Amino acid sequence: MRVRIVFRGAAPGREVLEGLFGRVTFPATARITGGQGSRWRAESGPIRGVVMEDMEPTNGPVVIWMRCVIDEVLVPLHEAFPLRGAGFSG
């Protein structure tokens, strides 16, 4: 999974972003993969799912990762450095 972040104005340095994204560890890690100024990109490590017999696969682990990014990274960032937007892609 990938997430793109765009700040309204001033943005924190790469070190701050790396520290916040480093807090995301379940169900996969997250790391900054590029960007500068007010636009940054991050992506997850491998997100593993579990498929059980007689059940359809779900996107549960992906949703959990997105929720962790929102709670651990995006909300604290927005409080200190207002975001213009953030978008997830797979």
Strand order of the largest sheet: 2-3-1-4
Strand content: 25-35%
Principal-axis shape equals elongated
Order of helices and strands: EHEEHE
Helix/strand structural class: alpha+beta
Q: List how many beta strands DSSP finds.
A: 4
Structure described in brief:
By secondary structure, this protein is α+β, with helices and mostly antiparallel strands. It is built from 2 helices and 4 strands.
Model description:
- The protein is α+β, with helices and mostly antiparallel strands and 90 residues long.
- It has a domain at 1-48 and 81-90.
- Helix content is 32%, strand content 29%.
- The chain contains two helices and four strands, in the order βαββαβ.
- It has helices at residues 14-21, 60-80, and strands at 2-7, 30-36, 39-44, 83-89.
- The protein is elongated.
- The mean pLDDT is 92.
Which helices and strands, and how do they pair?
Elements: E1 2-7, H1 14-21, E2 30-36, E3 39-44, H2 60-80, E4 83-89
Antiparallel strand pairs: 1-3, 1-4, 2-3
Key descriptive features of the protein:
90 residues, 2 helices, 4-stranded antiparallel β-sheet, alpha+beta
